[in-house]
Amino acid sequence: MAMTTGTSFDYQQALDDPCRIFGQPGNVLAHPDLDARQKREILESWRQDAVRLSESEGENMGGGSEPMLKRVNDALLELERQTGIGAAHKRTITS
């Protein structure tokens, strides 16, 4: 899936279905029309989707893959490195 730009870009669609809009988490980072906050929100939405799919797969319901969850988490960490904006998922994980 090619990254969308310009007037055809719909931020709400990106939040609702980031995989369909961007294809890969790295495309969110590279998108020229998004600020750091928007990128983080989209990646967090994607991470939540990937976690749900991974959990479904663990319950033998089919669904997501661990590699996508890793790629989304890696993109969130890269965004944090680039901008200093912390990833929300790091604050919600408890040991």
Element layout with pairings:
Layout: H1 11-16, H2 18-22, H3 25-30, H4 36-58, H5 66-83, H6 88-92
Structure report:
The protein is mainly α and 95 residues long. The protein has a domain at 34-86. Helix content is 66%, strand content 0%. It contains six helices and no strands. The chain starts with 10 loop residues before the first helix and ends with a helix. Residues 91-95 have low confidence and may be disordered.
- Percentage of residues assigned to helices: 55-70%
Alpha-carbon distance between the two ends = 36 Å
Number of beta strands: 0
Number of helices: 6
H and E string: HHHHHH
- Globally, the shape reads globular
Query: Uncertain runs with pLDDT below 50, 5 residues or more?
Result: 91-95
Structural class: mainly alpha
Beta-strand fraction estimate? under 5%
Q: If you average the pLDDT, what whole number results? A: 81
Q: Tell me the radius of gyration.
A: 13 Å
Described by strand count, sense and barrel closure, the largest sheet is: none
